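Hey, resending since the last one bounced:
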Amino acid sequence: MYAEYIVHEWVGVPPDIVFTEDLQKAVLGILRSELEGQADPDLGIIIAVLDAELEGDGILLSGDPNVYFPVRYSILSFEPLQLEVDRGIVRDAREFGVFVSIGPIDGFVHRSQLMDEDVEYIQENREFRGKESNRTIKIGDTVRARITQISKASKRSALFRVGLTMRQPYLGKEEWYKEK
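The structure tokens again:
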């Protein structure tokens, strides 16, 4: 799920920038370079810093050359939610399952969770085929999948691991449930 958050924080600005550049623009640039693409266990994956506004005067800390300003900024983030249904694109197919791009991250669908039937992996085409229905899943297909497992990022690891299923009604390739 995508979300927008408002954050209040002190931001350190190098002294050479404080007195020579547009401070508002400089703070926005610093926040973007430090935060965009980072995973936070509370906020999710930060996609973009949308804007930043100075809220007061800067302060100096002993032994630190930076000037710290109180800043209010908004971010756009993505956080996978348990049981959420997402639409994504199959990015890779391996013998053990497929990787589906949902937002800025990839989720994994084990081969046993692709269809309501046994599947076989066809190495030459890098695709899975249902043994009864002959339905296929391959790289580039658009699918719907439900999030079943989430391993959130921690302060030590900036990773989200997402497990998906396509074995429930109206999941999988769109053409499958349009047939019904």
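The chain has two domains: 2-78, 85-179.

Sorry for the duplicate.
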